[in-house]
Amino acid sequence: MRLDKFLKVSRLIKRRTVAKDVSDQGRVLLNGKEAKPSTDVKVGDTLEIQFGQRTLTVQIERLSESNRKEEVAGMYTVLKEEARKRDNEEPFL
Fold first, then answer.
1. Taking the domains of the chain in order of start, what are their residue ranges?
2. 75 vs 82: CA distance, rounded Å
3. Where in the numbering of this chain does the RNA-binding S4 domain appear (predicted)?
4. Residue 60: CB atoms within 10 Å
5. Which sign does the torsion angle of CA 13, 14, 16, 18 carry?
6. Which architecture does CATH list for 3-83?
7. Who contacts 21 (Cβ-Cβ below 8 Å, separation ≥6)?
8. For 13-25, what is each residue's pLDDT tens digit?
9. Which residue from 51, 67, 62, 58 is spatially nearest to 9, judged by alpha carbons?
10. Strand order in the sheet with 28-30
11. In angstroms, rounded to a whole number, what is the distance separating the alpha carbons of residues 35 and 29?
12. Is residue 16 within 8 Å of 81, Cβ to Cβ?
């Protein structure tokens, strides 16, 4: 399955065009390497997606061409979710 389609079907990103744009900008890593929207994903692959100041790392558990809202939960497992600190941000004292 294509990366952009997986991101849309799994509801990690709402629209396929947005998933394509995010991938084109180099904000999606597949198994540690930058991935294009047309890259094939497989069960067991690890995705790292950068959303603004937040990075989400997930492992693909299941592939499906289409899903209902209730079925999305089993498609991936969240491995790590972290907020990136801004470079010019000082710690709050």
1. 3-83
2. 20
3. 1-61
4. 19
5. negative
6. Roll (3.10)
7. none
8. 999 999 999 999 9
9. 67
10. 33-34, 28-30, 46-51, 54-60, 76-83
11. 6
12. no
